[in-house]
Amino acid sequence: MTRRLGSGSLVIATHNAGKLKEISALLEPHGVKCLSAGSLGLPEPAETGTTFVQNALIKARASAEASGLVALADDSGLAVDALDGRPGVYTADWAERQWFEGEPGRDWYMAMGKVEGMLQEKGGGAPRSCAFHCVLALAWPDGEYAVYEGKAPGTFTWPPRGTMGFGYDPVFVPVGREQTFAELDPAEKHAISHRAEAFKKLVAEQFG
Ligand code: IMP
Fold it and tell me: Does the residue 116 lie in any domain?
């Protein structure tokens, strides 16, 4: 049986204030106090895994070991079937601007365009099926862990549409809809997203 969190403090292994806020809002009603790895000054490990599970565990374990508290990490990305699952764990990296391309930072239009370019190289008939994945990993300081996976299947569309959301939302049309994640009302996206599915599994097992 999977170990349960109970009430107490949980380190959210992220330095991203937005993610901390979103995750805290989901867990605090269950009596969990969420602290961020950033506010505790915990190190950010290199994401050297080749799967979402490996990277989520690397982050959760690093925070659990450094803090002595239970830690939660997430890893997510877009996997395109015709590209053998790419960009996958490199979804954020594909948006990284190189120094010679101007200001450092992330360019999501460039990243989405790279996927489109690779699909076009495959020819007009290449399937455009893809899925967003999200893995949540819980790690206890003694090495025990639990993993929860969520997936949102859909189609990669071009050109990008919509102004809501973030990242690759403007090119992702979830199965059963015609709008992209960036055109859908955020509440509708959150009801069907890969992240929502992973959180439902975590909450069911940990607090159900
Ligand atoms: P990480 O999980 O922080 O390593 O980043 C994964 C990357 O996947 C993000 O930077 C986004 O570009 C992309 N991604 C993950 N979830 C979503 C989503 O719900 N919408 C759009 N892009 C997403």
Answer: yes
* DSSP E strand stretches across the chain: 8-12, 32-36, 70-80, 129-139, 145-156, 172-174
Nearest CA to ligand 1 atom 8: 77
- Give how many domains the chain has, as a whole number: 1
For residue 63, the surrounding DSSP H or E stretch is helix 52-67
* CATH code of the domain containing 87: 3.90.950.10
- Cα–ligand 1 centroid distance for 157 (angstroms): 17
pLDDT tens readout for residues 53-86: 999 999 999 999 999 999 999 999 999 999 999 9
Distances from the Cα of 41 to the Cα of 17, 72, 101, 113, angstroms: 14, 16, 32, 36
Catalytic residue among 75, 93, 107, 142: 75
- Nearest-Å Rg of the Cα atoms of the chain is 18
* CA trace torsion 180, 183, 184, 189 (10° rounding): 60
Task: Confirm whether 2 is domain-assigned.
Answer: no
DSSP string, 113-158: HHHHHHHHHT-TTS--EEEEEEEEEEE-TTS-EEEEEEEEEEEE-S
Per-residue pLDDT reduced to its tens digit, 39-49? 999 989 999 99
What residues make up the domain containing 74?
8-206
CA-based diameter of the chain, in Å? 54
